[in-house]
Amino acid sequence: MRNFVIMNISLKSPFNDNVEKPYILAGPCSAESRSQVMDTARQLADGGIKIFRAGVWKPRTRPGGFEGVGLPALDWLAEVKATTGMAVATEVATAAHSDACIRAGIDILWIGARTSANPFAVQEIADELSRHSDKPALLVKNPVSPDLNLWIGAIQRLYEAGAERIGAVHRGFSSYGEPLYRNRPHWSIPFELRRCVPGITMLCDPSHIAGRRDLVEEVARKAMAMDFDGLIIESHCHPAEALSDSAQQLTPAELLDMLTRLGRHTTGTSDAELDGMRERIDRLDESLLSILASRMELSEEIGRYKKIHGMSAVQPHRYNALMDTRVSEGERIGLSPDFLRQILSAIHEESVKRQLAILSGKTQE
Ligand code: PEP
Ligand code: MN
């Protein structure tokens, strides 16, 4: 992974002080009708949910899908806010959407995954926000591709437009051939974002990662175990009839039950036994680092040998043999082949880089 620059900015929480962690945003993928919005919102509010989400403009991957009802749905969200007291959130993709939402009193605007992948669109939204003195809170979903810089760049554009209440949403990344989930989690990316943007409020969207109702809970549980600040989850009063993302939505009752179950698993993260195990992990990591450093030194020694003997940096048969033997050896001791291939190819890439530097004479020999 590249080395990312740590942003020296100070962000505020996108949520009001009266909302407690873990922050839960819930509501339908799309606002479809006034009755669907109000019915879902009432059930969620009765269950103690404080922030309601619903898409007003829906970016569909292929034409012909339900594209949202647009402006009339903003009145329904305003009605949810007035009658239930919940804060309301919706997605914006253009300056016009943002302006309309601010005028309608929408509390939280989120930038969707397709929009955060597009710096022109994000800049247009940022420019619009800079024209409004009373800025809404913002959530920036990760871009569809696993590109951390693009995600950070979107946050930066909004921050530079004067927004301070900005959070991030991890909703997984498009990938070809992902076997289980709709969007591959790549959990290390939101972790790296948290390191690069210290203090950012980090939510997980298990609905869009899972893509399937029966997998939402396990993704939500993982996110809570990884100390995310909250969840944004899709919930529809009649999921089977939903006009978008029907397969991944939960009824309000299912969602509330799930949160109760999750609550039981989110307490007590610090005790002596855990501290002891963490210390052991720290020591193992130290050994791993020193083994890696020794391995790289040896690669460089081989590089010098190859240079003297006029050999190339990579011998494909050696690479293939190395992968095959390590993967089967690793499997025998309980390591997954996928994991091993990732680690081994990263180690190999670094070794080749070092040897190439030696062969091209860029490094002291
Ligand atoms: C959504 O939240 O309904 C949505 C469209 O999300 P994403 O941008 O993550 O696909
Ligand atoms: Mn959706």
Describe the structure concisely for a colleague.
With 365 residues, the chain is an alpha/beta fold.
Mean pLDDT across the residues is 93
Shape: elongated
First and last CA, distance: 27 Å
CA gyration radius, whole angstroms: 24 Å
Helix-strand topology string: EHEHEHEHHEHEHEHHEHHHH
**Poorly predicted regions:** none
Overall structural class, as computed from helix and strand content, comes to alpha/beta
Helix percentage: 40-55%
Number of distinct beta strands: 8
Question: How many helical stretches?
Answer: 13
Walkthrough of the structure:
Strands 1-2-3-4-5-6-7-8 form an 8-stranded parallel β-barrel, surrounded by 5 helices. Helix 11 (272-308) crosses helix 13. It is an alpha/beta fold. The model has no long low-confidence stretch (mean pLDDT 93). It starts with 22 loop residues before the first strand and ends in a 6-residue tail after the last helix. The chain is built from 13 helices and 8 strands. It has helices at residues 34-46, 72-84, 95-104, 113-116, 119-130, 148-160, 188-196, 206-210, 213-225, 252-263, 272-308, 316-332, 337-359; strands at 23-27, 51-53, 87-92, 108-111, 137-141, 166-170, 201-204, 230-234. Strand 3 (87-92), helix 3 and strand 4 (108-111) form a beta-alpha-beta unit. The structure holds phosphoenolpyruvate (PEP) and manganese (II) ion. Phosphoenolpyruvate (PEP) binds at residues 29, 55, 112-113, 141, 171, 205, 208. Phosphoenolpyruvate binds next to loops.
